[in-house]
Design goal:
The complex is a heterodimer of chains A (about 425) and B (about 475). Chain A is of the alpha/beta class. Among the domains of chain A are: about 90 residues, Alpha-helical ferredoxin (Fumarate Reductase Iron-sulfur Protein, Chain B, domain 2, Orthogonal Bundle); about 130 residues, Rossmann fold, CATH 3.40.50. Chain A is built from 24 helices and nine strands. In chain A, helix 23 links the parallel strand 8 and strand 9. Classes of the chains: A alpha/beta (about 425), B alpha+beta (about 475).
Chain lengths: ~425, ~475
């Protein structure tokens, strides 16, 4: 059973905020707005006032609530580790309960709540994608998180005709004595970047691991959390818990930082079953590191001609302390020359439904990132989250740079199996 | 009183979207890093000197309390609107106007974050030394209002030592200019120093000319573990007497060490009851010799282990120990009274002994750490206010701490300011004639008492809004 926390459940957390202001230095949104309502301390002050019955869920408050990427940077840097992301999500659920879903929230619900619809939209759009995807209204669904008005402003990847479930079987047998690993794919890898999931499957099975990719898994619930849709979040979480209850995989890997963040962070808040699943989740970079596979990859003969690659830290890896492993992986790759960029750790600006509700701010945050990528002189920017890949490529395109955004696993696939990175 | 007409006037000056009387915005600007909370009547964002001047003129005409606000990260209530009125937010007035490598100056607006300026000047091989713990988010305007310090002050001095000139909007809305880009300037009174540390009670700083230094080429970090706090305290004076001024000279007492031990796996020898973290900076060739000399000086004072960082990572590991103190304090007790007393360096051992005695007498944990090199000790009285009678105990403890501090020739605040938090203790330190002189200055510059009223000087305070 899944139990969602109410704002009142965070009362103790809220009282732990000492208003020191340290969150100002780490909030990507505050950096743009320089307004107290953008930052954790301000949101917590508002939450305290709501709990005290001093203020209702009025327009100014909901406006400030929309100014959060749920990136968790403030939580990671808070001296008292106050869970501002959880508090904001709980406040957004209160708004939804009282005022109904926003337009963006309804879009999220329609798509992430219905897998056939999502699959159908992707397929239909995929046929037309290379030509006119920018102008197809139905593609709004493909982004999951983007309203049509925002979509028109964005560049998007061509939509593959075959999704991950068309490419990778539900069960792949393990070699004798090797464990079976679960794969939580997530929407972006399933439908937009299935080659990342396919590469991951190739990697694990070639090293002898079994793979379990249950068809009944769905969206991790991050967009639902972000848009304050508690009912949908509960439904999705229960479906995912059920999907991985069987299948013989103890460890479950993700290659989507956001899904991993939701599954390890927010699921742990959903009661005992949620915590049980959260404990089984590993990011793919952690997994490769733990299993000694990064060291194995490092044994490949180095190539003379290397690609200059820089790395972007997804918030949902960085705030879980996963910064070393992806870099170790990139350094191990024979064709990669890793160069650090300035502000590798600053957010790309996508942030759940943020890119839809706060398009202008999201672009400004993205522009900063594009400038740092340009200054690094890299040909590729690699990262561990398909959401970041999407946003980074859009920011890069807007800046007119000749750089491509890729998943780190794309580069692994290229090095090991000659895949196209 | 802020009425609809005033709000409309304000909107005409800064634009309607920069003025708010909405309850959410008032809640968002009602606090700082103290536990105080007072709602302003109206929140205004300004981005130019002209806007600030016109807003203050309006406040002056209508006798409305007004206070400037930067990051709102002060520890003494300096940015709490205790009389309501206008909170004038300057975080968006944040341009670095000039960095002048020939004259070694930077000209900035008050909303620039301290660390942002530091990063910019360091790109050019220059250096802005004041380093309050809040530098990643506090603003230079706020640093000037409180005369912020930091660990590096033992060698480099505090904010006031780096302010060459100011543009200030006075309480009547006039724009005045103090000092300039030159090191030397004796034309008239030194108004620059008057405004530095004035906590927003005399005027609003709208432009700042700061002095810069060449960036030190290298630094070397040492950790020295002592068997007793007394040895560590005497080591501080001994190092200075040895004619070495380290860039930082930080200490942690036994309770601070225990605190960190509980929070993280701390690699310190058993029996270590005090730690000094010492950093020297300058030309690489000189640093080795200085480090060796320091170890030689402290050796006879009960040293049980020394570490000299060979790499940046090792230096970082040493600093991590020091930085872990503050976040781990709450494990001792939920409520923290953080005081920043300062005594002459030579009296640090006596002060520490007195603090230990006060702690034992009242059976209240007191965790001490901070900037031993300049005598500035962060005294953290850790209590649980839910315990009956604890509030009264805390008041007695603080009173004894401040009386001892002053008796030793020290000051009740080294770098946090007075605000409202230290107001009851100002009379312990300043004699009536000195206090009267300060009040006379306040009366002359702000006759209607609209600039951040109710701060520094004890007087009845009330905010009808709360």
């Amino acid at each position: 059973m899944v139990h969602l926390k109410d704002l009142a459940d965070y009362a103790d957390q809220i009282s732990q905020c000492v208003r020191c202001g340290a969150c100002q230095a780490h909030c990507p949104v505050y950096r743009e707005t320089l307004g107290e309502g953008s930052v954790a301390r301000g949101k917590i002050a508002l939450a305290a006032s709501v709990l005290a019955g001093e203020i209702g869920l009025e327009p100014r408050l909901t406006e400030e609530l929309s100014l959060c990427l749920l990136c968790g940077s403030c939580v990671a840097k808070c001296p008292n580790r106050v869970e501002t992301d959880g508090i904001v999500a709980a406040l957004r659920r209160r708004v939804t309960d009282e005022q109904g879903l926003s337009t963006v929230g309804r879009g999220v619900a329609a798509l992430t709540g219905s897998k056939p619809l999502l699959r159908g939209l992707v397929r239909g759009a995929g046929l037309l994608a290379p030509l006119v995807f920018k102008h197809i209204p139905t593609t709004s669904g493909l982004r999951l998180r983007f309203a049509p008005a925002v979509l028109r402003e964005r560049t998007l990847p061509p939509i593959p005709a075959r999704n991950l479930f068309d490419r990778v079987p539900e069960h792949s047998m393990a070699a004798a004595g090797r464990p079976t690993i679960g794969l939580f794919a997530g929407c972006a890898i399933t439908y937009l970047y299935p080659q990342v999931g396919e590469g991951l499957a190739r990697l694990l099975t070639s090293f002898g691991y079994g793979l379990f990719l249950p068809r009944s898994q769905g969206c991790c619930g991050m967009p639902a959390l972000s848009s304050g849709n508690g009912a949908l979040l509960t439904e999705l979480a229960e479906a995912n818990l059920a999907a991985f209850a069987e299948g013989g995989a103890e460890t479950i890997v993700t290659a989507c930082a956001s899904c991993g963040g939701a599954l390890t962070g927010h699921y742990a808040d959903l009661g005992e079953d949620g915590r049980g699943l959260a404990d089984r989740i590993l990011d793919i970079h952690q997994f490769l590191d733990r299993e000694g596979l990064i060291a194995r990859i490092a044994e490949l003969p180095g190539q003379a001609e290397r690609i200059r690659v820089t790395y972007h830290d997804p918030c949902h890896l960085r705030t879980r302390g996963i910064t070393r492993e992806p870099r170790a992986l990139l350094r191990a790759l024979p064709q990669v020359d890793l160069v650090e960029m300035d502000e590798a750790a600053s957010c790309c600006g996508l942030g759940g439904t943020f890119a839809a509700t706060q398009a202008e701010l999201s672009r400004r945050i993205g522009d900063r990132k594009a400038a740092a990528i340009a200054a690094s002189g890299a040909e590729l920017v690699a990262t561990g989250c398909p959401g970041c890949v999407l946003q980074l490529q859009d920011s890069i395109d807007r800046a007119g740079l000749r750089v491509r955004a890729v998943h780190t696993l794309d580069l692994v696939d290229q090095a090991l199996y000659g895949g196209h990175a | 009183m802020v009425d609809e007409r005033i709000v409309q006037e304000l909107a005409r000056i800064v634009g309607a979207d920069q003025v708010s009387t909405d309850s959410a915005d008032r809640i968002l600007h009602a606090f700082d890093a103290t536990q105080g909370r007072f709602l302003p009547e109206v929140v205004v964002h300004a981005t130019t000197t002209d806007q600030v001047s016109r807003v203050v003129r309006l406040a002056h005409e209508h006798r409305i309390p007004i206070l400037p606000r930067g990051a709102g990260s002060g520890f003494t209530g300096g940015s709490l609107p205790i009389r309501g009125g206008i909170v004038l937010v300057l975080t968006r007035m944040n341009r670095i106007l000039e960095i002048d490598p020939d004259n070694l100056t930077a000209t900035v607006e008050p909303g620039v974050v301290t660390a942002t300026l530091q990063r910019e000047v360091e790109r050019l091989g220059l250096f802005y030394p004041p380093d309050p713990a809040s530098r990643e988010f506090s603003t230079l305007g706020g640093n000037i209002a409180e005369c912020a310090g930091g660990p590096r002050c033992v060698k480099y001095g505090v904010t006031r030592d780096y302010v060459l000139g100011l543009e200030v909007v006075t309480a009547s809305g006039e724009v005045i200019h103090t000092g300039g880009k030159t090191m030397k300037n004796v034309v008239g009174y030194d108004l620059t120093r008057l405004f530095v540390g004035s906590e927003g009670t005399l005027g609003i700083v709208t432009r700042i000319i700061l002095r810069l230094l060449p960036k030190p080429e290298a630094r070397k970090t040492l950790l020295v573990a002592f068997a007793s706090i007394d040895g560590a305290a005497r080591a501080v004076s001994a190092i200075i007497r040895g004619r070495i001024i380290p860039a930082t000279l930080e200490f942690m007492d036994a309770s601070a060490i225990d605190c960190v031990r509980r929070a993280m796996d701390l690699d310190l020898p058993d029996g270590c009851r005090a730690v000094l973290i010492i950093e020297v900076d300058g030309e690489p060739a000189v640093l080795e010799a200085q480090a060796a000399r320091i170890l030689e000086i402290v050796e006879p004072l009960g040293v049980i282990e020394t570490r000299v960082a060979a790499t940046a990572e090792e230096a970082e590991a040493i600093w991590k120990v020091r930085r872990s103190v503050s976040p781990s304090l709450r494990r001792v007790n939920p409520d923290k009274f953080n005081e920043d007393i300062v005594v002459p360096r030579s009296r640090v051992p006596e002060m520490i002994r007195a603090l230990e005695a006060i702690s034992a007498k009242h059976k209240v944990p007191i965790v001490n750490f901070g900037h031993a090199g300049d005598g500035n000790i962060h005294v953290n009285v850790m209590v649980d206010l839910k315990e009956e009678g604890m509030r009264a105990t805390v008041d007695r403890v603080l009173d004894e701490i401040f009386r001892t501090t002053v008796a030793l020739g020290g000051a009740v605040s080294g770098e946090h300011g007075i605000g409202t938090a230290k107001m009851p203790f100002i009379g312990l330190e300043l004699d009536p004639a000195t206090l009267a002189t300060m009040r006379a200055i306040k009366q002359a510059l702000d006759p209607h008492n609209i600039m951040n009223p109710g701060k520094i000087f004890p007087e009845p305070a009330s905010n009808p809004q709360n």
